[in-house]
Amino acid sequence: MFSRAMKFLKKLYNGTLGLLSNDMGIDLGTCNTLVYVKGEGVVLCEPSVVAIEKDTGIPVGFGDDAKKMLGRTPGNIIAIRPMRNGVISDFEITEKMLRHFINKVHNSKSNGFFHLRPAPALVIAIPSGITEVEKRAVRDSAERAGARTVDLIEEPKAAAVGVGLPVEEPAGNMIIDVGGGTTEYAVISLGGIVYSKSIKVGGDGLDNAIMEYLRKTYNLLIGERTAEEIKIRIGSAYPLEEELTMDVRGRDLIAGLPKNITITSEEVREALQAPVQAIVDATKIVLENTPPELSSDLIDRGIVMAGGGSLLRGIDKRIAEETGLPVHVADDPMTAVVLGTGATLSMPARLRRRLVVKTRIDF
Predict the structure, then answer these.
(1) CATH 3.30.420.40 domain span(s) along the chain
(2) What is the pTM for the complete model shown?
(3) For the CA atoms of 124, 127, 130, 134, what is the dihedral angle to 10 degrees?
(4) What is the structure's pLDDT at 355?
């Protein structure tokens, strides 16, 4: 009797707080962190970058402010990414970054009486292949950052929900989420993952391939921001109808002086060949391990791509050509995962329990 009364009180307590708090869905990505507020939509999208003082370890900038410092900071300030390959590489800095973003959103929504709003409940997207220790690190970081409760959902599930796939139906749905540090694959049916795969190739890997190509081919050293700009402006995974060119500035590794060159989209495509092929090969492995009944569903439904990396020109055509299946890029692939975490906040408890990695409610 006492146990049932306690469960009722917990449910009532958390339900009351849920009406007052700004419950959030978070896509804690290698490149960007996005925050969704229940009832309002995506309210924050900033780089997962923190600038800190080297001597004291005190943060001096987060997100957009910190990214502007990448490669341009004085000796006593370093700009770092606390997330690597989709997982936390620096527990303490990630916690501070999360706290900053949560407070930034939470406080901006509070006024008058509601400056006393209780801490938010969070749904956070995580890579499908991370270990239990890494899951615990994400959960602990969020709890220490001020969350009331924390649910974890695997990124491909969140992306599938975010793009509107009928994940609760008894039919095969395949999603590819090309993030900054990883590419996540999943075949989903009845709210669960039938088969999943994660590879440590993503947007960062594409940028690094461009940097390495220019270093070897032209003895030109460029930074991450320049490589990303090249990828966005003229990068492709499939031949373009009209090839593009771009002027690139960097430092000559031999002379040590500033240098300017012109590169073509064909060259960039050659530079991206290895990581793009890795994404295609992993797609084939997932299809080979998909049960036959679900494979037949994919002939009609095709594959859906999400994540910022899916914006690379022609990557959908490349995968479609090599798999023989229709491939569709989500309307807004950058926000697919965070929209999925946001949708999970409003789901009926039955379906939500099937989607989240583990539900934990603290009193």
Answers:
(1) 13-158+337-358, 166-330
(2) 0.84
(3) -30
(4) 81
